[in-house]
Specification:
By secondary structure, the protein is of the alpha+beta class. The chain is built from one helix and four strands. It has a four-stranded antiparallel β-sheet with strand order 1-2-3-4, with no helix packed on it.
Length: 118
């Protein structure tokens, strides 16, 4: 019984009654509508991806940076990144780790956060 019997289907098949034809037409419309919604969703996602890729406020290569930044004589730079117009530098001075915030154009230190163990 797991194998369906298709012997009765084919060119000699009986026509559907009007109620079954209405249901079949309704299902075809629903399938068409849901397919359109799915395609519109894919288009929206790809449009958003392309928009994000193509809208760039400028790259770090185009920006002007200070020639030197003072981090301290004993400081080891662990990491540096540019974020929201600030140059963030993670340094280790002896046993102390600090996050330094600089203006990337002038090189002036704007702030310092020291990390301490508790």
């Amino acid at each position: 019984m797991s194998q369906p019997d298709y012997r009765d289907e084919g060119p000699g098949e009986k026509p559907l009654d009007p109620a079954a034809e209405r249901i079949q037409a309704k299902l075809k419309r629903l399938l068409f509508g849901s397919s359109l919604v799915m395609i519109a969703g894919f288009i929206a996602v790809f449009a958003a991806i392309l928009y994000k890729i193509n809208t760039n406020n400028g790259s770090a290569a185009d920006a002007q940076f200070a020639a030197t930044v003072a981090v301290g004589a004993e400081a080891d730079v662990l990491q540096a990144t540019l974020s929201e117009g600030l140059l963030l530098v993670l340094v280790r001075e002896g046993s102390r780790t600090s996050l330094l915030r600089f203006d990337p154009v002038t090189g002036k230190e704007l702030g310092r956060t020291d990390f301490v163990a508790r």
